[in-house]
Specification:
Belongs to the DapA family. Pathway: Amino-acid biosynthesis; L-lysine biosynthesis via DAP pathway; (S)-tetrahydrodipicolinate from L-aspartate: step 3/4. Keywords: Amino-acid biosynthesis, Cytoplasm, Diaminopimelate biosynthesis, Lyase, Lysine biosynthesis, Schiff base. Its EC number is 4.3.3.7. By secondary structure, this protein is of the alpha/beta class. The chain has one domain (7-258): Alpha-Beta Barrel (TIM Barrel). It has twelve helices and eight strands. It has an eight-stranded parallel barrel, surrounded by seven helices. Helix 1 links the parallel strand 1 (7-11) and strand 2. Helix 3 (85-98) runs parallel beside helix 4 and helix 11 packs across helix 12.
């Protein structure tokens, strides 16, 4: 049985070359940067990693590389969600063979099913997968909302160990309350503005696009709120970061373009986004640069060779 995740988990970006192939050399550098900055785990091939514009073989190559580059320094969660339970199980078990600890799974969407269909989907995946399953509740992207009661029921499954909540904060609070006494089950937020509020009421961890750019700061926020119980210091740090939170999704949600641009500015190659996503505008890059300067970062000149398309 997998141990439930906790802490700050970075939903890794995927660096692409100009021809949109994956730059694995830069990917390794991104992973080293994250681990050296203190993150508690890596999510490879998630939404921020642009899995949705990749072939299955590319997704597998990313999972394999992520596990190899992490080299056991921190645990790896793989984005393994597919349209059917059979496909998801196959990818989850491939991820397990590569060394992943957990698999992140969206509910069925597009051709939507009933709550019973969703329940059966997750239970089949949990039963037949060799890694811990993390539910991904993201109604803004899927138009499917998993009720707190359904998440509670699924939390009783031995191999379902966590939920990533990217719904509204009220829903997050309801899920946290209803699962508070479930052993080996944790509740994460996936939204930067909710990180401190969620941790302050008992949440066990967080994802966030911004972790790619500011891992040290968000790990520190977790440590202040959870390990040191210093909410005054946590609030002060959160206030410093608040100006950059909204910029991460200013041009779409979810959208890794701005965070990739920010990484380029501090010398960690983020690369392009893959079509049909469009490159971040000069305006958003200038705004990110301004916020990084406020945080004390030395930043590179804006690269105007990559423009919005």
């Amino acid at each position: 049985m997998s141990i439930a995740p906790k802490g700050i988990i970075v939903p890794l970006i995927t660096p692409f070359n100009n021809d949109e192939t994956i730059n694995f050399e830069d990917y390794k550098k991104v992973i080293d940067f994250q681990i050296e900055s203190g993150v508690h785990g890596l999510l490879v091939g998630g939404t921020t990693g642009e899995y949705h514009v990749m072939s299955l073989e590319e997704r597998k190559s990313l999972i394999k590389a992520g596990c190899e580059y992490a080299a056991g320094r921190v645990p790896v969660m793989a984005g393994v969600g597919c349209k059917t339970a059979v496909e998801t199980i196959e990818l989850a078990n491939y991820a397990a063979e590569c060394g992943s600890t957990w698999g992140l799974v969206l509910p069925p969407y597009y051709q939507q099913t009933s709550e019973e269909g969703i329940r059966a989907f997750y239970k089949e995946i949990a039963e037949k997968s060799n890694i811990g399953i993390v539910i991904y509740n993201y109604p803004g992207a899927t138009n499917v909302t998993l009720s707190p009661e359904l998440i509670y029921e699924l939390s009783q499954e031995e191999n379902i160990v966590s939920v990533k909540e990217s719904a509204d904060f009220g829903h997050y609070c309801d899920v946290l309350a209803i699962t508070k006494n479930v052993e080996n089950f944790t509740v994460f937020t996936g939204e930067e503005p909710f990180i401190l509020p969620s941790l302050s009421i008992g949440g066990q961890g967080a994802f966030g696009i911004l972790v790619n750019l500011l891992p040290k700061e968000l790990v520190e926020l977790y440590e202040l709120a959870v390990e040191k119980s210093d909410l005054n210091a946590a609030r002060a740090l959160n206030q410093k970061l608040s100006g950059i939170y909204g910029l991460m999704e200013a041009e779409g949600n979810p959208y890794p373009g701005p965070v990739k641009a920010g990484m380029d500015l501090i010398g960690i190659k983020g690369g392009k986004v893959r079509k049909p996503l469009t490159q971040p505008t000069e305006e958003i890059k200038a705004n990110i640069k301004e916020e990084l300067l406020k945080l004390g970062y030395e930043v590179n000149e804006l690269d105007k060779s990559v423009v919005s398309n």
